[in-house]
Specification:
By secondary structure, the chain is an all-alpha fold. The protein contains six helices and no strands. It has one domain. Helix 5 packs across helix 6.
Length: about 140
């Protein structure tokens, strides 16, 4: 708990919630990142603009944070590039199998009281915790 930041975390959560609510209110769309990205392929040209803008905003926001506050990207977990690539691939497969990602189910589905989202988020949380435990205890040999 050495990096506990309740104010910044609360502000970030509020901003994510407002962004998801705004997208649903004004565009009638769920702010699920995997759905936005997956829908980009094969989408009509009129549908591509907002999807590309949304994804570009995510990248620009991350690059802006890297530029103006690089300390938030401290590299504390040393994993080989192949392991990170494999993890990304497994996340992509999981989002397809689960019919959405944590942002779509967790941020947008839970507030709408979606039974499917409650189930998906429970599975995400369990497997995320299990993956972290396996990584820390088996792959990294208990090193923290």
């Amino acid at each position: 708990m050495e990096h506990f930041t309740p104010l910044a975390s609360t502000l970030g959560g509020v901003m994510i919630g407002l962004a998801a609510a705004t997208m649903l209110l004004f565009n009638g769309r769920i702010a699920g990142i995997s759905g936005v990205l997956g829908g980009l392929f094969g989408a009509p040209a009129s549908d591509r603009t907002w999807r590309l803008s949304f994804l570009a905003g995510l990248l620009i926001g991350g690059l802006g944070l890297l530029t103006f506050a690089p300390q938030v990207y401290t590299d504390t977990l040393q994993l080989p590039l192949w392991a990170l690539g494999l993890a990304g691939l497994l996340v992509g497969i999981g989002t397809r199998m689960g019919g959405g990602c944590t942002s779509g189910h967790g941020v947008c589905g839970l507030p709408r009281l979606s039974k499917r989202s409650f189930t998906a988020v429970g599975v995400f949380m369990f497997t995320g915790g299990l993956s972290a435990w396996v990584t820390m205890n088996w792959i990294l040999g208990g090193a923290a």
